């Protein structure tokens, strides 16, 4: 049995069809086991014997669209991938804080990472790198000015569209704890 995290794109918990209980209900309706939620921002954990991740992503996304009208993307990661990512300690000595966000931007299975990252003229972002095994860009974002979007985040959106979703490092840690419990 595989343990997965579904990282759902575009979830706004204030909308009636995007509450954790409704999201969990869709996953349970698909026959997935041990369904739980982490925070209220579209992080669902579950167990499944299915190992075809792209097919499972499509099945989940189709059910979310059909049952709740949620058009966003579904990105899955297996516990082992996330645990290896955490254990690699990609942010050594750094702390996630109010003005400095440690972020992980996950690519959907099948999305190919750019060979070259954009130049870093943006003082709001320090790209730590790309972890190919977990298919994730890692960056430190200066979030002290909430009115500005860092150029790197804009580049990610333009390059990958709906084939990405970003989580803070703290959220990734919480997801792994929930999957391991």
Main features:
181 residues, alpha+beta, Alpha-Beta Plaits, four-stranded antiparallel sheet, 5 helices, 31% helix, globular, DUF1697
Task: Give structural notes.
With 181 residues, this protein is of the alpha+beta class. The protein is 31% helix and 28% strand. The chain contains 5 helices and 8 strands. A 4-stranded antiparallel β-sheet has the order 2-3-1-4, sandwiched between helices. A 4-stranded antiparallel β-sheet has the order 6-7-5-8. Strand 2 and strand 3 (43-48) form a beta hairpin.
Give me a quick take on this structure.
The chain is α+β, with helices and mostly antiparallel strands. 31% of the residues lie in helices and 28% in strands.
Topology:
Elements: E1 2-8, H1 20-29, E2 33-37, E3 43-48, H2 53-68, E4 74-78, H3 79-87, E5 100-107, E6 125-131, E7 136-142, H4 151-160, E8 164-168, H5 169-180
Antiparallel strand pairs: 1-3, 1-4, 2-3, 5-7, 5-8, 6-7
Helix pairs in contact: 1-2, 3-5
Overall residue-averaged pLDDT value: 88
- In what range is the share of β-strand residues? 25-35%
From the alpha carbons, calculate the radius of gyration and give it in angstroms: 16 Å
Series of H and E elements: EHEEHEHEEEHEH
Give the helix proportion (percent range).
25-40%
Counting DSSP H or I runs of 4 or more residues, the number of helices is: 5
Pfam families: DUF1697
InterPro entries: DUF1697
